[in-house]
Design a protein that fits this description.
By secondary structure, this protein is mainly alpha-helical. It has two domains: 14-117, 2-Layer Sandwich (Beta Polymerase, domain 2), CATH 3.30.460.10; 125-273, Four Helix Bundle (Hemerythrin (Met), subunit A). The chain is built from ten helices and four strands. It has a two-stranded parallel ribbon with strand order 1-3. Strands 2-4 form a two-stranded parallel ribbon. The longest helix is centred in the C-terminal third of the chain and has 25 residues, at 201-225.
């Protein structure tokens, strides 16, 4: 998620996986119970109100989802991924990076999942079709009722989701050959794709500009309203949001049209690169 990509906004939760490795000679059941207790305590502490906003740790992307164990050993992760992993899990692992705990164990986890998220030979035609199928389902089911698909910052056409799915498909298909695509961050991966001539300059520029403006608007809206929103700001919030996005106070009214125009360019690039 955005934590792994160093792209968290003010309202982001943190998508995490908990990995442990029992010490030599330790009883695995007791080690798992101890690791589970540590993970639960960490989630509790970060969710408490304090000087900094509470942070929700979402472990829903773990193997077997919310039905699976919260904490697994490295061996258990490896066995699961070798036998059961789906392409959407490889896509989620593109963002994986160690953030706390044993750095050596974190690196061993990355070494284990690298062949999954950067598959040798790229994706099969069936896997590319599956990524596109899942994206189409997200587009049809997750956009809030009544939301304008031309201006929804996260799930609308040319918005954050469109750009990120496009970049991640390029990573899944080409990262085994293009080292620059082996990054957890959206924009560096996009520039690497342009350098490798996987996307042309105009498409890369349109995708980057829309992604950056949508990100700025989301953060600015949170600061102005005090609560998150994925919609363009309403009139009463527009001046403040536009100012935080770098607009002169006399030009605040340009922001919605600027975003829609840029999102249309990005959507055209998504159509060519992701769906083409």
């Amino acid at each position: 998620g955005r934590l792994g990509g160093l792209e968290m906004s003010y309202s982001s939760d943190a998508d995490v996986l908990f990995v442990h490795d029992p010490l030599s000679g330790a009883e695995e059941r007791e080690a798992s119970e101890a690791a589970f207790a540590v993970a639960n305590e960490l989630r509790r502490l970060l969710a408490l109100p304090g000087p900094d906003p509470a942070l929700d740790l979402d472990a829903g992307l773990r193997p077997e989802g919310r039905q699976g164990p919260l904490v697994r050993t490295l061996t258990s992760y490896e066995a699961y991924y070798e036998r059961w992993s789906k392409v959407w899990e490889a896509q989620a692992l593109l963002r994986a990076v160690p953030v706390a705990g044993d750095a050596e164990l974190g690196q061993r986890f990355l070494d284990m999942v690298d062949p999954l998220r950067y598959p040798k030979g790229g994706l099969s035609g069936a896997d590319v079709a599956e990524v596109r199928r899942i994206k189409a389902r997200v587009d049809s089911e997750r956009l809030p009722r009544g939301a304008d698909p031309a201006s929804h910052l996260k799930l609308g056409r040319g918005g954050l989701g469109d750009v990120e799915w496009t970049v991640q498909l390029l990573q899944l298909r080409h990262a085994h050959q293009v080292a620059g695509l082996r990054t957890t961050q959206t924009l560096p991966a996009l520039w690497a794709a342009e350098d490798a001539e996987l996307v042309d300059h105009d498409a890369a520029a349109a995708l980057a500009a829309s992604w950056q403006l949508a990100s700025r608007i989301r953060n600015a809206t949170m600061l102005v309203r005090g609560r998150p929103s994925d919609s363009l700001p309403q009139q009463q919030d527009l001046a403040g949001v536009a100012f935080l996005c770098g607009y002169d106070v006399t030009e605040a009214s340009r922001l919605p049209d600027d975003y829609r125009r840029g999102a249309r360019r990005a959507a055209a690039a998504v159509h060519r690169v992701f769906w083409g």
